[in-house]
Amino acid sequence: MIVRISAENQYRLDDEVLARVNELDNAAVAAVDAGDRDAFHHNFNELLALVRSKGTPLHDDDLSVSDVILPPDDLSFEEAGQEFTGEGLIPD
């Protein structure tokens, strides 16, 4: 799977990481639904850190299409309410 972090880079993620990525995405959705700002930021920041640490950055000249586009790390909780809904950014 190829994941883009907006305003940053694209990363190729191996299949064994995807379950944890999906868990964090679902936890971020649940936190938004519950109105829990701290839990959202914790899960969202952990999601971004996981993609950055376990993903392989693609070269700038790689034109692969992103499977998922994550918002930038400065996403506000209010903005998250528009992004993290339903199945989240990463459908089950």
Tell me how many strands there are.
Answer: 4
> Count the helices. How many?
3
Tell me which oligomeric state these chains represent: single chain
Low-pLDDT residue spans: none
Mean pLDDT: 92
> What's the gyration radius in Å?
13 Å
InterPro entries: PspA-assoc_dom
Can you offer a commentary on this structure?
InterPro entries: PspA-assoc_dom. A four-stranded mixed β-sheet has the order 3-2-1-4, with helices on one face. Helices cover 49% and strands 14% of the residues. The longest helix is centred in the first third of the chain and has 20 residues, at 15-34. The model has no long low-confidence stretch (mean pLDDT 92). The protein has one domain (2-74). It contains three helices and four strands. It has helices at residues 15-34, 37-54, 77-83, and strands at 2-5, 9-12, 56-57, 68-70.
In short:
The protein is built from 3 helices and 4 strands. The protein has one domain. It is α+β, with helices and mostly antiparallel strands and 92 residues long.
